[in-house]
């Protein structure tokens, strides 16, 4: 704990900011100072936005998304394809896929991936609710949109096993060259996958 | 403007977080999500700390420091040496010097440095108030604790000129090898300065 140099109100703000992902103690000090200097344009609006978020935002009990309604906007959207679920690790992945516009179905947020190292076990993930949702007679396909990491793939296998016997198609995202990606920056595994899954031009 | 995927309350929080120094749009999304997930332990306390900071923190009209009292704690501290002022660019430099414990005097925050590139002119800095404070008959020394950059040194020269005629000693921080610093990572200017200012062992 470094020597406190500002008043307790500023120190408290710095300490809390330093716990945010992406900000260390040093950048938390800079951020606090910036916020204080721009009280009307930054600090006051951010304080208010956080208060509102705090009061209104909740986790969707159906899919694990965060929203201000329960169930969330996506779960309540009647135009979404009811025959498919896209399984993601985290809400940030759901957001990324929504930005892409490629998903017309609903999601299921696992809330993590299995990890022996971090001690994440199957019961720590939202797996039971996934199995329940998958049992819906309208369900046809489960798309596993998990990170292409060891833990992500271990989880993909576990989820696939858990869903056996429901007669569902279980798919995963394609591997390949990222759009705009340069070949000589890609690892061999990606290049091999891209060659194997090549498509007609 | 990327497609909004979360509700307006979350989008607003992300947009405001993205304007904080050290956080871009991507890390702002991650930070917002983290805050929402840890509502009780992070989002609520941070919202409250910001509200309190917003209400109570002000800029000291004497020195430019930020504090919850006016004048600030440092300016009101009767044990501080009244014969010396330490001139800094920003409050963050004041904080850094206070953490070092090496300053027993008070400060003067310029609020920037002269910069032709950024269009910062003398009238944009807290220079008039510095000249007024320097005119105090008790004043003996002005320590220029400005960054060792071109703009910092230009500003140091300008401040020195502005203070002429008050019979004050104007000093600046020593150049040299940082404590714990490795020689072969230092530039030649620093090494030359360190050799020239060498001290008996
Ligand atoms: Zn939902
Ligand atoms: Zn002050």
TrEMBL record, chains A, B:
Transmembrane segments: none
SMART domains: TOPRIM
Keywords: DNA damage, DNA recombination, DNA repair, Metal-binding, Zinc, Zinc-finger
Molecular-function annotations in GO: DNA binding; zinc ion binding
DNA repair in keyword set: yes
Pfam families: RecR_C, RecR_HhH, RecR_ZnF, Toprim_4
Keyword check for DNA repair: yes
Toprim domain mapped to chain residues: 83-178
Stored InterPro entries: DNA_Rcmb_RecR, Rcmb_RecR, Rcmb_RecR_Znf, TOPRIM_dom, TOPRIM_RecR
Family: Belongs to the RecR family.
HAMAP family: RecR
Function: May play a role in DNA repair. It seems to be involved in an RecBC-independent recombinational process of DNA repair. It may act with RecF and RecO.
Name recorded for this polypeptide: Recombination protein RecR
Biological source species: Methylobacterium gossipiicola
């Amino acid at each position: 704990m470094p020597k406190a140099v500002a008043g307790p109100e500023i120190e408290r703000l710095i300490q809390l900011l330093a716990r945010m992902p992406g900000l260390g103690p040093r950048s938390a000090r800079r951020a606090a100072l910036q916020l204080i200097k721009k009280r009307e344009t930054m600090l006051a609006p951010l304080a208010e936005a956080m208060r509102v978020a705090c009061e209104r935002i909740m986790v969707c009990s159906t899919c694990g998304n965060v929203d201000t309604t329960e169930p969330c906007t996506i779960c309540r959207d009647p135009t979404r394809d009811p025959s498919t679920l896209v399984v993601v690790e985290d809400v940030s992945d759901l957001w990324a896929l929504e930005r892409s516009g490629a998903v017309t179905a609903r999601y299921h947020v696992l809330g993590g991936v299995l990890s022996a190292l971090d001690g994440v076990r199957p019961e720590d993930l939202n797996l039971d609710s996934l199995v329940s949702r998958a049992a819906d007679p309208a369900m046809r396909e489960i798309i596993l949109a998990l990170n292409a990491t060891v833990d992500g793939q271990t989880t993909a296998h576990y989820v696939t096993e858990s869903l056996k016997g429901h007669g569902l198609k279980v798919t995963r995202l394609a591997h390949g060259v990222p759009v705009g990606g340069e070949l000589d920056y890609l690892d061999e595994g990606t290049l091999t996958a891209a060659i194997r899954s090549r498509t007609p031009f």
